[in-house]
Amino acid sequence: MEGNFSNAQRAEVLTAALPYIKKYSGKIVVIKYGGNAMVNEQLKEQVMEDIALLWLIGVKVVLVHGGGPEISDTMKKLGKEAVFVDGLRVTDKETVDIVQMVLAGKVNKTLVNLIQMKGGHAVGLSGIDGGIIEATTKNEALGFVGQITKIRTQPITDLLEKNYIPIISTVASDRQGNVYNINGDTAAAFIAGALGAERLIMMTDIAGILMDKDDPSTLIPHVTVEEAKKLYDSGVISGGMIPKVDCCIEALEHGVQNVVIMDGRIPHSILMELLTDEGAGTMVKQ
Q1: Element (H, E) at 238
Q2: 83 is in which domain, residue-wise?
Q3: DSSP state at residue 213
Q4: How far apart are CA 71 and CA 81, in angstroms?
């Protein structure tokens, strides 16, 4: 493919991207990189390359990541079964230790390393560091699954000002020192809102909001909060998409300009979303 691309065509692509580069340069864009979009190593490398490119053209990228499949794999290796209630992992004391080890350790540092290999400068943090994410118990039955009570943005903005890409794993703590597992989409929405981000991009393993969940060609490219509520009522937004759209609406209510749900398995989907006319996935806005 690359060999068929003439220099003139390359120049044309770069020129077409210029208005978007100007639009986003110096602006904060929060990217939620979901566990299910992270399972392909080659794709993971490509996503980190795209993030490094955005950083190089002046976009202030904040990467918030999950790592559900990695946590489940590690639990299995340790002989512990993963249990979910309404899509949330039941997290006892032993499980929260595993979550912290996998997310704040292995997954976080792998992403930092990949971005640095691609020419970006990144620093890995967890929600515990600098008290970025403060939480309390969401539901006693779920154990150490947290509900966010406060976001402290200063550790993030300090890094952005020093020209680093903050990479944040979604574990949190309370004032008593308890550690909590936080839903990644929720954490990204709260962080994007607290930062007043220009855009929140939620990378997942689905194309976006579909009129027919089994037909990717029925993708809805734009939806307002009002329209989204009607899609809930009609059953178009259902199952696992409900909490994702809830998080989009939450982010908008906290001051994010717009939110995009898109398929993180499509190569260069971030660049298509930010630097082209057509974009990618479903944009949710007020």
Answers
A1: none
A2: 26-285
A3: T
A4: 11
- Tokens encoding 38: 């992270």
Coil/strand/helix, residue 277 = coil
Tell me how far the alpha carbon of residue 97 is from its chain's centroid.
Answer: 22
Instruction: Record the tokens describing residue 31, joined without a space.
Output: 């990217």
Distances (CA, A) of 136 to 57, 133, 148: 38, 10, 7
Residues 6+ apart with CB under 8 A from 224: 284, 285, 286
241 in a structural domain: yes
Q: Quick check: pTM over 0.90?
A: yes
- Supply 148's token pair: 């966010």
Q: What is the CATH number of the domain that holds 114?
A: 3.40.1160.10
Range list of β-strands (E), the chain: 28-33, 60-65, 84-85, 88-89, 122-126, 133-137, 146-151, 165-169, 171-173, 179-181, 199-204, 222-224, 258-263, 282-285
In tens, the pLDDT along 73-100 reads: 999 999 999 888 877 789 999 999 999 9
For residue 222, tell me if it sits in a domain: yes
The predicted pLDDT at position 48 comes to 93
Dihedral of CA atoms 41, 36, 85, 73 in degrees, nearest 10, equals: -10
Q: 171-173 and 282-285: which strand pairing?
A: unpaired
Phi and psi for 261 in degrees, rounded to 5? Answer: -100, 125
What does the pLDDT read at residue 34? Answer: 78
User: Can you list the residues of the chain whose pLDDT is less than 50?
Assistant: 1
Strand bridging mode 258-263 / 199-204:
parallel
Contact 122, 112 (CB under 8 A): yes
Q: Kindly state whether residue 7 falls inside one of the protein's structural domains.
A: no
| Alpha carbon distance 222, 242 (integer Å) | 16
Count other C-beta atoms under 10 Å from residue 257's C-beta: 15
- Total number of domains constituting the chain: 1
Per-residue model confidence (pLDDT) at position 1: 47
| 2 in any annotated domain | no
Tokens of 4: 């068929």
